[in-house]
Structure formats: C-alpha cells, structure tokens
Amino acid sequence: MDYQTILYSTENGTATLTLSRPQTLNAFNDQMISEATDAFKQADRDASVRCITLTGAGRGFSSGQDLADTQNRDDGFSIGEHLRHGYHRLIKQMIKTEKPIIGAINGVAAGAGCGVALACDFRIASEKATFMLAFSKIGLIPDSGLNWMLPRLIGYARAYQMALTAEKLPASTALEWGLVNVVAPEVEFAAEVQKWATQFANGATRAFGLTKRSMYRSFDMDLDEALEYEAHIQDIA
Ligand code: LHQ
Predict the structure, then answer these.
(1) Residue 70's pLDDT is what?
(2) Does the CB atom of residue 70 touch ligand 1 within 6 A?
(3) Which residue of 21, 23, 25 sits with most ligand 1 atoms within 8 Å of its CB, as the best mutation to test the pocket?
(4) Is the whole model's pTM more than 0.90, yes or no?
C-alpha cells in the first residue's frame, strides 16, 4: 500500500510510523485511519521489526478526528459506523500487535488522537506535548477506547475530570498522573525516543509481545484465570 497521509520506514529493527497531515496537526481523515491501521499490520507481520514508534509530523501528535472532513459530509454519515469501521480497527490492531509500540508524543494529542496515544504501550512525551479530551467541547463523549483505557491508567476521578474540563493536560502533569512513562526536553526528545526504541528492539521480542497479550487479557480475568493463563503463556515463551 502506498501511503499519502503517513510516513513509514524501518531501520535497525524499529518501524517508524509518522502521522503526516501537519497542516491540521495530523487530524485523522478516513485515509489516515486506514493507512495507519495497514502500517501497524505490516509492522506486525514483518519479522525484522521488533519495536514500533508512532509520532506526528510538525508541531502536533494528532488533533483527533478531522472535523472539517466530518462536517462536510452529506452521505448519511453515522459517527457510530465511522468509529466501528475506522478507529476501532486501528485501536484493536495496535493492541493485538505483539511488539512494543512507543508513542513519541511530540505535541498536542487531542480527541481520538489522545485515544491513539493511549493505545501505545510506552509513551515518551516532549515537554511541549499536551493531552486533551476535546470531545465535550463539541457535545461528544470520549471514544476510540478512551473510556476503557483512561480510567485504567489514571483512575476514574482524573479521567472524568479530563473529560469534563476538556483542558490541555501538560506533559509534566501527564507524567505525575501516570499517563506517560517519560518526559524529555524538546531538544533531547528525538534522542530519548531513539534510546528506548533501540533498547526495546534489542530485547526479547517474543516475550515482550506475550507480556503485552497477558497483561491486556488479565483485564478480563480473575486471579485464578490470570495465573493459569500466565502458566500457559510461559510454556510458549
Ligand atoms: C484541525 C483540527 C481538527 C481539522 C486543528 N480537524 N483541522 C470521532 C468520530 C466522528 C466525529 C467526531 O469525532 C471523533 C473523535 C474525535 O477526535 S472528536 C475531537 C476532535 N478534535 C477536536 O475537537 C480538537 C480540535 N482542535 C483543537 O481544539 C485545537 O486545534 C488544538 C487544541 C488541538 C490545537 O490548538 P492550537 O495549537 O491553537 O492550533 P490551531 O487550533 O490553530 O490548529 C492549527 C490548524 O490545525 C488550524 O488550521 P489553520 O488552517 O487555521 O492553520 C486548525 O483548523 C487545524 N485543526 N484540529 N481536529
């Protein structure tokens, strides 16, 4: 697949996927959702890829759904169907990709862009990055998995606060709240991302993938089931 809205490259075991519609702060149109989903699939299948980095071109990570694209539609557009056929596929593909995905959050991650950031496994934020549940400003509820992911990551009180206020959460608070793993000054950001990507790409890829699967599965399990599942997966590892 030739990509027009994202950049995709591989080097030294790391695939780098760059959302590339900088004039909109990398807002998702249908094509970008579908190309990003395809690129994650490709990275998952490619045995030479052992770590994936997701970032944004220009000053934003992603501003979420391209609102201009949605507003101009007169084709019986349903948000529910748009989510089911677009973002749900992307988010599920990211979760089922059994390789660590680093979210290199270079700037604002708003709306569905924040959902995509949270579907990454390890988040490195530039000091300039912000996280924003923009939905309530346009009368919507958080989507793209945010209602599932965010309370698990930072607890209900803070997650609901983010939804109600729709304010930009600075990177420093995101770190304090456990929304990101690392914050780096802008000048050191690229090197920091590179450092972690190299470390993960040189690690136990199969075990990293199985750990991701086991941790996600544990969300739906009681302790007995989780212990049994660990034993089963450990045999595979
Ligand atoms: C944009 C966008 C954008 C298009 C900035 N679209 N152009 C799912 C299914 C279906 C429907 C609805 O939603 C969803 C899920 C969602 O994601 S809902 C949430 C959608 N996102 C938003 O509501 C965020 C809207 N954007 C903003 O609030 C601001 O742009 C943020 C806070 C992200 C950044 O603010 P600034 O740094 O001040 O930048 P800016 O506002 O000046 O934006 C820069 C340019 O990007 C500007 O274009 P222009 O031609 O004037 O330079 C914006 O129009 C464009 N842009 N977000 N989502």
Answers:
(1) 87
(2) yes
(3) 25
(4) yes
**68 CB less than 6 Å from ligand 1?**
yes
Mutate which of 63, 72, 105 for ligand 1 pocket (most atoms within 8 A of beta carbon): 63
**Which residue is associated with the tokens 């249908």?**
30
DSSP assignment of 142-206 equals --TTHHHHHHHHH-HHHHHHHHHH-PPEEHHHHHHHTS-SEEE-HHHHHHHHHHHHHHHHTS-HH
Stretch 61-82: mean pLDDT: 90
Q: Closest by alpha carbon to 60, among 134, 122, 3?
A: 134
95 class by beta-carbon count within 10 Å (0-12 exposed, 13-18 middle, 19+ buried):
middle
Instruction: Give the β-pairing of 14-19 and 6-11.
Output: antiparallel
Give catalytic residue positions.
88, 143
